[in-house]
Amino acid sequence: MGKMILDVRNLTKRFGDLTAVDSISFSVESGEVFGVVGPNGAGKTTTIKMLTTLLPPTSGSANVGGVDIIRQAPRVRRAIGYVPQFLSADGSLSGYENLLIFAKLYDIPAQEREDLIRDPLHFMGLSESADKLVRSYSGGMIRRLEIAQAVLHRPRILYLDEPTVGLD
Ligand SMILES: Nc1ncnc2c1ncn2[C@@H]1O[C@H](COP(=O)(O)OP(=O)(O)OP(=O)(O)O)[C@@H](O)[C@H]1O
Ligand SMILES: [Mg+2]
Fold first, then answer.
1. What is the mean pLDDT of residues 135-161?
2. Does the beta carbon of 26 sit less than 6 angstroms from any atom of ligand 1?
3. CA angle 63-86-107, nearest 5°?
């Protein structure tokens, strides 16, 4: 058995009378690819929002490598990457500039930013488009940019909400 990286216990989210996530428990090992499948409205996005510290759980708990998502949210944010369900990149900036904002937000030292940004852009096949405005990108190119953005700081966990949307 490998090292456990994510441990979720009885995680629950209620919106008023609606129970969107009903006491789910699971754990994920380091290096494992873990998928969650369910119909529209099943609570997949709500679960990811709790695990990425964007939404407080109603009850239950989860930790990333022992770091609690509620009490140690800033440490959890440094350890994770997140590609949201809906496109979020800024169309009025270039691909490179979108990544530069993230590099700054993650406190990556100025002299390391350029290399750290070029790598994932290259990996996602966006080197040629890096200096074009994102509003001129296709849907799949924006998705690729968001994946590059989410892995920029070398997270221990990468969350992808509807990962195949828009990708060839
Ligand atoms: N902020 C909110 N306020 C009230 N209800 C919400 C909120 N966010 C989600 N819900 C409700 O919670 C339920 C779960 O929604 P969620 O977006 O997590 O589903 P999903 O599994 O991601 O669906 P999809 O496959 O359509 O993306 C739905 O009934 C939704 O209407
Ligand atoms: Mg969803």
1. 95
2. no
3. 55
